[in-house]
Write a structure and sequence with these properties.
The chain has 267 residues and is of the alpha/beta class.
Length: 267
């Protein structure tokens, strides 16, 4: 069964010692496509290099993450526009709102988020959205806009079932990581049950959002010996999600493949 990772950060420097081995293992495991998300102009060139080295298999996404708002260089939006125009398969991500980080400036985050939404609308691109402890502001931002991007993916959204329903009504899609399969994470387990199957994709968010042990196939550590989430955990996440939703792996796989190509161009 072909599997797809709808959201990860393969360019992350913590994966430097492991990247080539991981890429070879993912190809051998018949992972058929993945979306590597940038977080700022600082890592966009690394995303581009991976996409160019593995055309059609690695899809690039370029965005200014809310954690990087306030650190962006002059001209970042023009550079983002150029990167998207240079690659018709490139999407906008990871972008969004986050009130979890200390010292956050929500107004500044919202300006950057809206600028990137505008660009996604103008160029007709999918946008991958991050939201943490900012669901009210996110919904308000989307509802008040005169135009929305053609496709919006909420990545690992620990939202309430009521919020998920509202976002689905607006046309949003959702991707979940192994984090949602941890028995003690009640909020995420409730969200997983609320996601409609016809809006659900699978992600690892590697090297972050490590799931429980039963969703792991290997122990991966960075140079400081900190535990990382391996992108090789993707098949286990598929299985954990299928089990949690009470559906067959084949049903989840077919649906997720169809949605992956809905959101991310088939090269």
């Amino acid at each position: 069964m072909r599997q797809f990772d709808a959201h990860l950060h393969l360019q992350d420097t913590r994966l430097d010692p492991h990247r080539e081995r991981l890429i070879a293992a993912l190809r051998e495991a018949d992972v058929a496509g993945l979306v590597t998300n940038g977080t700022s102009p600082a890592d966009w060139p690394a995303v581009e290099a991976l996409a160019e080295a593995h055309p059609g298999w690695i899809r690039p996404a370029y965005g200014l993450h809310p954690w990087r708002v306030g650190q962006e260089p002059a001209g970042w939006l023009e550079e983002l526009r150029q990167r998207l125009q240079d690659n018709s398969d490139a999407t906008v991500g990871e972008v969004g709102l986050d009130q979890w980080i200390p010292g956050h400036d929500l107004a500044r985050q919202r300006r950057a988020f809206e600028q990137q939404l505008d660009l996604a609308c103008e160029l007709g691109r999918t946008v991958t959205i991050h939201c943490l402890k900012a669901w009210g502001p996110l919904l308000e931002t989307l509802q008040r806009r005169s135009a929305l991007p053609p496709r919006m993916l909420l990545h690992s959204p620990g939202a309430s079932p009521e919020m998920i329903h509202q976002l689905a009504e607006m046309g949003c899609y959702f991707s979940v990581s192994g984090y949602f399969c941890a028995p003690h994470r009640t909020k995420y387990r409730q969200a997983l049950q609320a996601f409609p199957l016809d809006r659900l994709l699978i992600e690892t968010d590697a090297p972050d959002m490590l799931g429980p042990e039963h969703c792991q196939v290997e122990e991966l550590r960075d140079l400081d010996q900190a535990l990382l989430n391996s992108p090789r955990n993707l098949p286990m996440i598929y299985q954990c999600v299928a089990d949690a939703k009470g559906i067959a792996m084949e049903e989840l796989g077919e649906s997720a493949e169809r949605l992956f190509y809905t959101l991310f161009a088939r090269s």
